Amino acid sequence: MDPMIVGLAGTVIMFALLALGMPIAFALMLVGFGGISYLASVQAALPVVARTVYEVSSYYPYTVIPLFIVMGGFAGSSGLTRDLYGAFEKWLRRLPGGLGIATIGACAGFSAVSGSSVATAAAMGTVALPEMKRYGYHPRLATGTVAAGGTLGFLIPPSIGFVVYGMLTEQSIGKLLVAGMFPGLLLAAAYVAIIIFLVKLNPKLAPARAETVSWAQKFTALLGVWEPLLLFAIVMGGIYLGFFTPTEAGAVGATVLFLVSLVKGKVTWTNLVQALQEATRISVMVLFLVAGANVFSYFLALSTIPMQVATWASELAVSPYLIHVVILLIYLMLGCFLDAISMMVLTMPVIYPVITNLGFDPIWFGVMAVLMMEAGLITPPMGLNVFTVAGVAGDVRVETIFRGVLPFLLAIFVVVALITIFPQIALYLPAMMTR
Q: What pLDDT does 57 receive?
């Protein structure tokens, strides 16, 4: 049978297994093993699976994943979330939708020490939602702001999204993390603009607050942001200047946050175990997904599908940017049904060769892919951040939250368009790195 037909049949079988409820990592590995066995031999397939699982789980740079997750766990237990929110709230409360803007600012700050969007949404939801409810904010705006703000955890470094993309495409994880800095700040600013626009359009969404805050209180509140600023400077500054690798940066960041939590008396046996368990759970999930994707990619390479698709796309008599837009639309549609990491693992074996054949910068495309996967976190019916916020809020319907996040999707699309037109937004800092 023609290898390409075998590849297409394997892809159909893989999606059928997903529809039946098989975990994505196992479906990828099973189909990849079966495909390699058919196109080569069982004797060739067995070592591929064994070697891939071992190499992925033992590859030193991948230890950055549990370290970034542990950083987020220690950040939450140290009380950093509440301090961040309090500082931004005191400085921004007089603006239209001030509490919502403070929530976005605090989400951006928390994202600088946590690589998980769900963790960011959950942590900020427990702090910000009660405050916005107390001051009469419409549930749609309050929950939509937290769900959208949580997506910044997937873009602002340290980001698990960039780590997985780097693992799948063999790009520099350090450069990818640095590339997310300006786009992350730009997206946070776009979210703030959306909130101000919505509140100006309908002031009832966020009643104005009459209380004033003295300058002494404002400057005292800034003490609550020194921890994430210091940690971000150490972690990302160290990577940018070449002082240490992303893995070493994760170790330094986790150690600093642990010591801060220890000094503040916030470390308990319970939250320490919870942080380590969460790091183990997410790390195992991601590593198995990557291992499954690698086995499946080997099968696809034997079937010649990625090369055929890349050649076909490069020979089309259309602008490469049109193909780029089509790829982004595919990501938007997939985001309605898959979580971000699964979407990346499933698509990169085919889409990445197309992108490189079209001459696009892999680092730039990594930022674009992560942005579109951020959109998937808040699109119905599978928006993971939306369900996270619904669980935290308790008394707000999921449909209300989905309506609340829709305006923020526009902000993501605007940022995607800006980075497409001005790629240096993402590429300037990586180009200046010392290594």
A: 84
Phi, psi (degrees; rounded to nearest 5) at 335 = -65, -20
Q: Is the peptide bond before 61 cis (omega within 30 degrees of 0)?
A: no
> Would you say 192 and 101 are in contact if contact means Cβ atoms under 8 Å apart?
yes
Helix runs in 264-377, H state only: 269-303, 305-315, 320-334, 340-357, 362-376
**What is the span of the domain harbouring residue 409?**
3-431
| pTM score, whole prediction | 0.85
Between CA 301 and CA 433 the distance in angstroms is 33
> Which residues have C-beta within 8 Å of that of residue 250, sequence separation ≥ 6?
63, 64, 67, 68, 71, 158, 235
CB atoms within 10 A of CB 422: 11
For 412, residues 6+ apart whose C-beta sits below 8 A from its C-beta are 151, 187, 190, 371, 372, 374, 375
Tokens of 369: 């892919």
Please give the structure tokens belonging to residue 251.
């170790």
Residue 223 has what DSSP assignment? G
The pair of three-digit structure tokens given for residue 211, joined into one six-digit string: 């209380």
Count up the domains in the chain and report the number: 1
Distance of CA 199 to the CA centre of its chain: 28
Q: Would you state the pLDDT for residue 430?
A: 92
Is 201's pLDDT higher than 90? yes
> What mean pLDDT do residues 66-89 have?
78
Residue 93: φ, ψ to 5°: -65, -25
Helix axes 80-92, 98-111, angle to 10 degrees: 140
| Highest mean pLDDT of the ranges 130-134, 189-193, 208-212 | 189-193
d(CA 17, CA 23): 8
pLDDT recorded at residue 224: 66
